[in-house]
Each structure stands twice: as C-alpha cells, then as structure tokens.
Design goal:
By secondary structure, the protein is an alpha/beta fold. It has 13 helices and 10 strands.
Length: 344
C-alpha cells in the first residue's frame, strides 16, 4: 500500500461525523460482561454478539470501522459470511487489536507496561492479508501517590512508537492509545499535567522512530476529573482543558483524534465530545471524534442478553448511540436526541 493510501485510510477513520467502534475486548473481558447478564461465556455467544453489532442496519453511516479482537477477525456470520466482508460491504474499514495486554512493570509497583512487540511484524502481515487496515495498541498510565514515574511513561511511549512504525511498515494505520486512567481521586488539573507529559513523550518517540504522523490516529483520554474526585469538572471545563492540552502537544499533521470513553457514562462521553466540537471544532487542525467501547455497546448488550429475539432492539440501541456520537463529532448533539430512544 502506498503512503497516499495509508494517509487516505487514516483520514477515512476520522471522516466527518464518523467514529470508531471498539469491540476488541479480550475473551476474558467479554466473558465477564456476559456473566453479569447471565449470557453463556462461549465462543458461540461471543460470535453471536459481535454479529449482532456488525450487522446493525445503517451502522456504516456513523462508524468508520470497528476494532476487532483476534478471535473476532477470524469469525463469520451464521450464514458463513466472514466478518471482514460484512464490515467492508458496509463501507467500513476492519481494524484489529494487536497488543497482548498491560503487565506489571518490573521495579515499579502499581504501574504497567503494555506487551506484544515480539512477533508483531509477522502478526501484522497476517492481519493485513485477512483484511485489517488499521490496528490498536493501548498503553495504561495510572495516577497515584508518586506515580506515574518517568520510567513508566517512557517505556510505554517507546512501545507505542515501535508498534506504530511496524504498523506503517505493514501498510496498516496505527491507532496510538496512551490512556491516563480515570481511576482514583485526582483533580482535573492533575489529569491535565499527566496527560500533557504523556502526550509530549509519546510524540517525541513517534518522531524519533520515524512514524509518519499523517498516517496515524491518536486515541487519548479526555482531560477529566477522576471517578472518586469530590469536585467533578463540568462539561465545559472538560472541553476547555482537553482542547488546551491537545493544542499544546499534538502536531497539526495528525489527521484526527478519536477519544476513548474511559469509564464515563454513555451520555457524558457524548456530551463532552460535543462540547469540544461545538466550541472549538472549527479552529482545530485535526478532527475530534470517538473510539468508544462500552459507551457505544453497553445499552445494546443489556438489551440483547444473548437472546435472538432481542437482536432488533439491541441493534436499534447501538445505532442510537452511534448516531448521538456522530452528531457530537460535528458539535450538533443535543439531549433531545436521547429522548428519541427512551421508548424503545
């Protein structure tokens, strides 16, 4: 694939009013969510769930592409159509999670480093042949007493950059995801400090290792109060702090920023994204959109509950959340849109 095609795919991933559907949960994480709802924790149930999501009518209108897990990219619908074909037929790009998870960082208690670089070149080549056109690697940064350490930030930034370079070598657009977690009781100001340091370090590494910024998508956290912080920042405060932080750290060459939801409620994740686009969108050098997992899936999962009869309603719930976030990506979302789904 040419450099122009890689850049075109990166642009397509963040095209006007479209975002990314993260359905790349590991089998273990997916099974935990199933257990809470009494859904069997089997490959067959996971296949049926992902089929329900990927075949939702009109989903390609709001979603540029889904991020898949290794098991999912190898699966097909019940009638034998490969999921990759379902995705491309809907006008979307197939994506794949390629890291092997965050592991304990040696010598640094309570901090993690994401692994998966060993053998990544060969895995990317296989995924490209299977149809994947973008990939994801998630680094996890925890805020706490005395952390994050520089060692944690640097080792994760280094791994993200090596992953991104390997992706581009394989003609795959890398989603670079450095997530500063919402866990804890830190303030929005502390989140800002850490997010700024993390993003500066990540882009220093990306540039050092020759990653072409026009051929990637950034997937960061929003700058937000921690879940247990007694003083929760308002939507306007989150929008202002997040945009200010990004303007100070993210080069204009990056085509787009697709936020993770990071544990926010469905509606709050949408409202925060909308505020950024409504207030600042026209003045920014990159697109701001979404790459949500639970904030897109959860209402659909709770409606589906593993029952075939519930598929149409579950698909409606997914389409509704996708439509709301599509509107937020253009700054045109309103709370009135939520009421449209209340009766379903």
């Amino acid at each position: 694939m040419s450099a122009q095609e890689l850049a075109a795919n990166a642009q397509a991933m963040v095209s006007e009013g479209k975002g990314i559907l993260a359905i790349d949960e590991s089998n273990g994480t997916c099974n935990k969510r199933f257990q809470k709802l009494g859904i069997p924790t089997t490959e067959e149930a996971r296949q049926a769930y992902r089929q329900m999501l990927l075949t939702a009518p009109g989903i390609g209108e709001f979603i540029s592409g889904p991020i898949l897990y290794d098991e999912t990219i190898r699966q097909s619908t019940k009638d034998g159509t490969p999921f990759v074909k379902v995705i491309t037929d809907a006008g979307m790009l197939p994506g794949i999670k390629v890291d092997t998870g965050a592991k304990e960082l040696a010598g640094h208690p309570d901090e993690k480093v994401t692994e998966g670089l060993d053998g990544l070149r060969d895995r990317l080549a296989e995924y490209y042949q299977m149809g994947a056109r973008f990939a994801k690697w998630r680094a996890v940064i925890t805020i706490g007493e005395g952390i994050p350490s520089r060692a944690c930030i640097e080792v994760n930034a280094h791994a993200l950059a090596r992953y991104a370079a390997l992706c581009q070598e394989a003609s795959i657009v890398p989603i670079v995801e450095p997530e500063v977690l919402m866990d804890g009781d830190h303030t929005i100001e502390r989140c800002y400090e850490v997010t700024e340091e993390v993003l500066r370090t990540v882009f220093n590494q990306l540039i050092t290792q020759g990653v072409v910024l026009e051929q990637m998508v950034l997937k960061p956290n929003m700058v937000i109060s921690a879940q247990d912080c007694p003083q929760q920042a308002s939507v306007d405060q989150v929008a202002e702090a997040t945009v200010r932080c990004l303007l100070r750290t993210v080069p204009a060459a990056v085509p787009g920023i697709a936020f993770l939801s990071g544990g926010q409620s469905n509606e709050l994740a949408t409202a925060n994204l909308n505020a950024m686009n409504a207030k600042y969108g026209s003045k920014l050098p990159w697109k701001l959109t979404f790459s949500y997992g639970r904030a897109l899936q959860q209402p659909s999962l709770e409606s589906w509950k593993g029952e075939k009869a519930n598929v149409p309603t579950a698909q409606q719930k997914l389409a509704h959340r996708a439509k709301c976030n599509s509107a937020a990506a253009t700054g045109s979302y309103s709370e009135e849109m939520e009421k449209q789904m209340a009766a379903v």
